[in-house]
Design brief:
This protein has helices at about 25-35, 50-60, 120-135, and strands at about 5-10, 15-20, 40-45, 60, 70-75, 80-85, 85-90, 95-105, 105-115. The protein has about 140 residues and is α+β, with helices and mostly antiparallel strands. It folds into two domains: about 1-60, no CATH class; about 85-135, no CATH class. The strands form three sheets. Strands 4, 7, 8 and 9 form a four-stranded antiparallel sheet that branches. The relative contact order is 0.11.
């Protein structure tokens, strides 16, 4: 699956960071060598964001997606791209993504809960609701 935001690959060593561009002719060989030697692969996200103070004065919103960069967070050993101000919490039966926002002086905590074993996907649930609406 292609990420929605642009990123590039980086390998971190004790003294330097090796950036591996897309389309490099030796990329498969280099990635295999790093993997074989236990060098961990990272994704560095390229995303232009507005300055928080400027965005707040323009909109009255603090904690907006327009000002948050993207970072990978590990979930079950896999990198998951999340906004840097999003906290990922794992529970026995679900995952929770939590953000804090300040809008016009009011503080909000936005939580999104995703069950680990969902009977239906959100899309399936939405289609069911649409079908019920059409029946009426």
């Amino acid at each position: 699956m292609k990420p929605q935001q642009e990123c590039f690959t980086a390998y971190v060593f004790s003294d330097y960071i090796y950036l591996l561009p897309e389309g490099h002719p030796s990329r498969p060989k280099i990635e295999e060598w790093f993997k074989r030697n236990g060098i961990r692969k990272h994704r560095i996200w390229r995303r232009k964001t507005k300055e928080e103070c400027r965005h707040y004065t323009e909109t009255g919103v603090w904690g907006s997606y327009e000002t948050a960069g993207i970072k990978d967070k590990n979930l079950e050993g896999k990198p998951i791209p999340l906004f840097e101000d999003t906290e990922l919490k794992e529970y026995a039966d679900s995952f929770c993504l939590e953000r804090h926002m300040d809008i016009a002086g009011k503080k909000f905590r936005v939580s999104s809960v995703f069950p680990k074993a969902a009977a239906k996907t959100p899309t399936d649930k939405l289609i069911t609701l649409i079908d019920k609406e059409l029946e009426i």
